[in-house]
Amino acid sequence: MTVEEYNQCVRQYADNVYRFVLKNIRDEDKAADIVQDAYEKMWRHHKNVDPAKGKSYLFSTAYHVLIDHTRREKHSVRMEEADLKEHVHNQQYTDLQEVLHQALEKLPEDQKMVVMMRDYEGYNYQEIGEITGLSESQVKVYIYRARVFLRKYIGKMEVVV
């Protein structure tokens, strides 16, 4: 990949990568950092990247940086979060989107990523497999399991609304 092809890749996919990361962590600053790290890694290896596979390489790199970041965050507990957990109470929700976000947070990271790539970003199974490094059949299994969990978690619409 030449410098010109790298710059074209940045212009063409920056918004999509940012949206993908932001939907997963919902923190604009962290999402920008993760995207920057992904582009930095791509730049370090740009001579070995096939320009035709630039999008796949970029999303795969962003996905792996996101997973690493998420794993590091899970190991560190913030005081604010620890204090809030003591005061949490159950309440009935009427906002389906909020319930869906809560359900997505309960999914394992791999299932969450693939279902968001498929249902939010519109990638096909093959593209998701290329980005995550999973086989196409494993992607289908993860999406199926995630959707089954989401159906059970959310329950019937009459209960939520």
Automatic annotation (TrEMBL):
Keyword terms, alphabetized: DNA-binding, Sigma factor, Transcription, Transcription regulation
Instruction: Please list the residue ranges annotated as the RNA polymerase sigma factor 70 region 4 type domain.
Output: 98-150
**A Pfam family name for this chain?**
Sigma70_r4_2
State one molecular function term (GO): DNA binding
Query: Mind telling me which InterPro entries this protein's record contains?
Result: RNA_pol_sigma-70-like (IPR039425), RNA_pol_sigma-70_dom (IPR014284), RNA_pol_sigma70_r2 (IPR007627), RNA_pol_sigma70_r4_t2 (IPR013249), RNA_pol_sigma_r2 (IPR013325), RNA_pol_sigma_r3/r4-like (IPR013324), WH-like_DNA-bd_sf (IPR036388)
Biological process (GO) annotations? DNA-templated transcription initiation
Q: Which residues form the RNA polymerase sigma-70 region domain?
A: 10-74
Family in the record: Belongs to the sigma-70 factor family. ECF subfamily.
State what protein this is by name: RNA polymerase sigma factor
